[in-house]
Amino acid sequence: MVGMRDVAKKAGVSLSTVSLVVNASGYVSQEMRRRVEQAMRELDYIPNELARNLYRGRTGMIGVIVPTLRHPFFATLVSALQGRLAKHELQTLLCSTADADTGEAEYVSRLRRHMMDGIIMAAHTDHPANYWTSIGRPVVAFDRVLGDTIATVRSDHEQGGRLVAEQLVKSGTRHVVMVGGPRSQFDDRGEGATTFPTVRYFQTLGERLDAAGIRHEYVACGPVTDVEGYARAVHLLFDRLSESRSGGSAGGSAHDSGVGDAGIPPVDAIVGSDVVAACAVKEAFAHGLNVPRDVQIIGYDGTCLVDCAGLTLTVVKQNFDAIAERLAARIVDAVNEPEGRESKDGEDSKAGKEFKNAAAVDIVPVSLHVGDTTRQMA
Amino acid sequence: MVGMRDVAKKAGVSLSTVSLVVNASGYVSQEMRRRVEQAMRELDYIPNELARNLYRGRTGMIGVIVPTLRHPFFATLVSALQGRLAKHELQTLLCSTADADTGEAEYVSRLRRHMMDGIIMAAHTDHPANYWTSIGRPVVAFDRVLGDTIATVRSDHEQGGRLVAEQLVKSGTRHVVMVGGPRSQFDDRGEGATTFPTVRYFQTLGERLDAAGIRHEYVACGPVTDVEGYARAVHLLFDRLSESRSGGSAGGSAHDSGVGDAGIPPVDAIVGSDVVAACAVKEAFAHGLNVPRDVQIIGYDGTCLVDCAGLTLTVVKQNFDAIAERLAARIVDAVNEPEGRESKDGEDSKAGKEFKNAAAVDIVPVSLHVGDTTRQMA
DNA sequence: CTGAAAGCGCTTACAG
DNA sequence: CTGAAAGCGCTTACAG
C-alpha cells in the first residue's frame, strides 16, 4: 500500500506538505504542489480515509436500517436516501433486519463499533426509547416514534386518510375493506413505546368513513416483510367476499343496490398499500369483478407497482424524494451539531439543547394520484 | 469517547490486557477478565473498529454497485446480497449509480479511499477491463464481463432461453415479440469491452424460435434504470399490435388462424423482464385481449412483480439466494487470498495465480415457474 | 500471564 | 511557505 510517506519521498518534500496538498488546505507553492501531484499520480496514491477518519472521529457513513429491500416501498426509500446522502458526501451502510439473520441490536452494535456518523432507523423495533438515546450517536427515525428526543420524519398519513375518504365518499362507496399490518400496530403502548404513524392513515380514513356513514372493516395481514403474505391474505379476502356476494347478483354494479345477505352492502372498495392494491386488482379480475365499477381499489405509497398492476393504480403517493431530503438534512444537522458539546455558553447552549430535545417531527405532504382503479367523481 | 485506555485505568490493568480480553486472544486470568469486562460494561465501552481496521488494513466492508434500487430486480439482488455478506461479518456499502448524481468512477474512488475489502459490481460500466483490474482490490462482477481476470457470477440465461422456447413451441405460438434493453447491448465489442450476458437469453430464445420456424422480433426499450420507460414502451407496442390486429378479428383467438395483413400471424406472445411482463398483462387487458388465450406473456427475473401483476406471471426465476451466495463466496475468497502475495513458493503460487487469472465464471441455474399467463402444454 | 513500545496512515498545531 | 513531533485508538510482537 503506497502511503503519504512514499509520495513525500518521491516528490522530495516532507509529509505535511503532501498532506496540505491532499487536503487543499494552507498554502503550498505551485512548484511543490505540482511535484506532489505528479508523484501521487505516478504512484497511484489513494488517501486512506481510515486514518483520516480515526483522527477526525468521523467516518462519513450513515447506517440505514430497514426491514427488507424486497418490499418496493423500502427499496424506493433507500434508493432516494442513498442519492441524497451521496450529495452530502455521506455513504450509505445498508442494514436490513429481515433479509439477514442479523438482528437489529447486532446491526446497531456493528454500526457503533464502525463509528457511523449517524443512523437512520426505518425498521420496526422492540427497543424502548432510552435504548435509542443511549446509543450516543445521532439517530433519525422514519415513520415511527422512537422516543421524545429523537427526530422523526414521516408522511402526512392523516392527509392521506382524508384524501382517500373524500374519493370514496364522492364516488358513492358503501362498504370499504382496509387491508393492513397486524392489529397490534394499533395498540397505543403509551409513552416510550414504539408507535406506528402509518396506522394513522387507516384511523383517519376510518373516522371519515364513519362520519359519512360508510361501512368499513379492517383485515390484518402479517408483517410488512412478507410480500407473499399479502398476496395470500388478499386472495382469501376475495374468496370470502365472493361467497357473501353470491347471495346477490354476482359482479353486479354497486350502484344497483345489490345488498348482501344480512342487509350488508357488498364490499365495493379495497384500501391498502401498493402491494395490497396490486393483489386486489388481480383477485378482482380472477373473480370476474369489474374494477372500478364493482370495486374500487386504492393503494398507498406510490412505488413502481402503480404501473405494474393489472390497471394503473389510484394511489396516495408518498413523496420519497422529499422524505429522503428531510431525513438527510436531519442527520446532517445532528452530525454537525455535536451532542457532546460542553455547554461553553450557558444560556445559548441551553436554549439549543432544548430545541433539539423537542423531538422534531417533519411531516411531508402526500398526494392522491388518480389511476384506473377508482371511479370518476361527479 | 471512552477508549481502551479508560477501561484499563478503571480496571486497574494495562492496555494490552484490555486488548486481549476484547479480542478473546491469548490467555487472561479469570479475575483480570472479570474486572475488565465489568469496567467495559460500566463505561459502555465500544471498541473503535476504525483504529483496529487501520492496523489490520481491512474494513470488513464490501462496496455494492448497482444502477438503481428502484428496479425490483436490483432491490431483490441487494437484499439477498446484504444478508449473505452479513453472514460473513461483512457490511454492505451501497452505491447506486442512477439514483445519485454520483458517477461510477466517483463511487469507486470513494470505495478505494475508504479501504473497502472488495467491490461487487452489478451496474453497467463504460470503463475498459484494465480499469477494473487496476483498482487494486478484489472485484466480482454480477452478470457482466469486466475483463479476463475478474470473476463473474451470472444466471444461466441460455437455459432460460431454452426453457421459454420450449414453452412457446409446445403451446403453438406463432409470433413472439421480445422486449428488452437498448439494441446496443447486443453489440459484441470484442475483448476488453463490457458485455451483457443477459442478451444471451434473447439470443438463445431467438435461435430456438428460428429452429422451430416461429416468427419473432425484438423491441428495444431504454436503459434498465427507467421503469416507467418500460411501461411506455409496452404501451406503444400494444397500440401498434392493436392496429395491425384490427385487420383480422379483434381479440380473436390465436388458434383460429387470424392471419394479419401481410400474411404475418398476429403477435401471440410477449417476452421480457418481469416489469415488461407485468406491463404487458395490463396492456393486454386494456386492449381487450385474453391472456393467455390471445397472447401469452412470460417474464424474466422472478421478483415480487410475479404476484403483483394482473395475473400470476409465468416467469423464468433467477435464483437470487444462490447468486448472492456465489457472489459473497467469491468476494470472501478474493479478500482472504491477498493479491499481493510475494510468491513465496514458486510453483504452487504460480499455479494458484493462474487459477485465479482464469476469470472464473459461476453460472447459476434458472427455473421456469408456470403462472397464469401461459397456456397449458399438451 | 502482564506491562512498556512501536506502528497502522493521516492531521494538526508548532517551531523554523 | 516547509519540516519534525505528537496523537487519533487499537494491535501485535517483545521483554518481564
UniProtKB/TrEMBL annotation, chains A, B:
GO terms for molecular function: DNA-binding transcription factor activity; transcription cis-regulatory region binding. Residues 2-56 form the HTH lacI-type domain. Keywords: DNA-binding, Repressor, Transcription, Transcription regulation. It comes from the Bacteria. Transmembrane segments: none annotated. The keyword Heme does not apply. This is LacI-type transcriptional regulator.
